[in-house]
Design goal:
single chain; TIM Barrel; Immunoglobulin-like; binds zinc ion; 14-stranded mixed sheet; 29% strand; alpha+beta
Length: 493
Amino acid sequence: MRRFLLVTIAAAGCGWAVPAQAEWFKGNTHCHSEVSSDSSTPQEELFGWYKSNGYHFVVMTDHNRYTEAAVLDGLRYRGEVLVDDSFLIVPGEELTNGSQHINGIDIPRRLEPHASISGSFERIWEVGGLPQLNHPEYNYIEAREITEEIAELNGSMFLEVYNSHPIVVRRSGPSSEDIWDGVLSAGRRMWGVAVDDAHTLPGGETPPGGGYIWVDAESLTIPAIIDAMDRGRFYASSGAEIADFQYTSSYYEVDAPGATRIVFLGANGRVLATIEGAYGSYDIAGDEMYVRARVESPAGVAWTQPVYLSDLPDNLPPTATIEVDKATGEAPLFVTLDGRGSSDPDGEVVTWRWNFGDGTEGRGEIIAHAFTEPGDYSVELTVFDDTGEPSRATQRIRVVDGGANNGANNGANNGANNGANNGANNGANNGANNGANNGANNGVGDGNNGGTNNGVPNPPPPPATNRTASSDESCAVSPHPTAAALWRLLTRR
Ligand SMILES: [Zn+2]
Ligand SMILES: [Zn+2]
């Protein structure tokens, strides 16, 4: 769930292609009343059933017949007007001819079906509606035919990936979901819808309720529902429920309480990942073309909308930030280098690499380093985000000669005493890089050079008396531990 928080925050500030809206509304975009020649359901009974069964909106789609919005808005069920703050009826029509059935959703008047799919789509767009290609299996329409028909078209369009009418499913050949993947793989964007295509009430042969969509819209108004559908901010279902789906250029994430399996699919229906459970996050590799998810549950299946990788905003790079407890001082200078302020606007920083500028390197969010020789050092931090994109920051460290005024005495003492100790201590205790380098340099250098100009002293002296663990722990977790505290923490391991 952590990632959902990140996405939500980013969505507010950065304008994702598909920002989450306020609320989810349940609807059906395909059903028939007695206005159709093949149904005898009174409109008020039909919509009364939907409203009583948790739906927020329904599109009236009789075969080549249109019911005016004013009539739909005035329908009464058991004495009450159906359309109110909690329920909408959207005018529409199923443009029906022998070879294809196409719904015009939210159209202002009856339209004549065109002989071609593209012709009917264009008629629907011309009057401000949304076209939906119905039950391709029933009409024996293949992916290639759809792809060719819509190749030159630009606009939002929908394909029934599921229709619960019992005669629309073909027993052999590609399923509606296969056809959907075929169209998507040709680079043609169609959003997938699920419908019930009801021609009867419950108890009849083609009842309502078998397929539906949940739309994430700003409000329950026709413009808001149409706008969310237009942008693909909805999912289709035959019974499975999804709490949310989100994506960035890094991952596609589905949260579906009650689901037993989440399958992520890419071009040509290739299974990218199968996750057993109710939550799944797929890390986008970059070669999928598009990513969508199918959610399986004991109650049915749900389909989220595809995202094309080419439609996603590019990855936003991370920012590297270095904080130090000191930037200048006498040699040897012990510095705490803290990279925890580094951040990534659309993911997270996962790797911190340090180049101390003295020929040594290190890794980790926060690290202690001893600069043993006077000089100006440029410390470089490189961070990598979860897509592998790097960012760099540098920090100057100035180390001045601390040995000039005490070379003789200190040199002699330190050289004698510390050479051996430092070499042993540092080498043994101080981690792979520091240990090896410091051990070798300090131990050998001190022994040889003691008394010349800088007998290099110990790392911060270990506490004279053993401190309690609790006081050390409090140092370790403070936001800016001192170098000495960090040193103790590191050497204790
Ligand atoms: Zn039909
Ligand atoms: Zn129909």
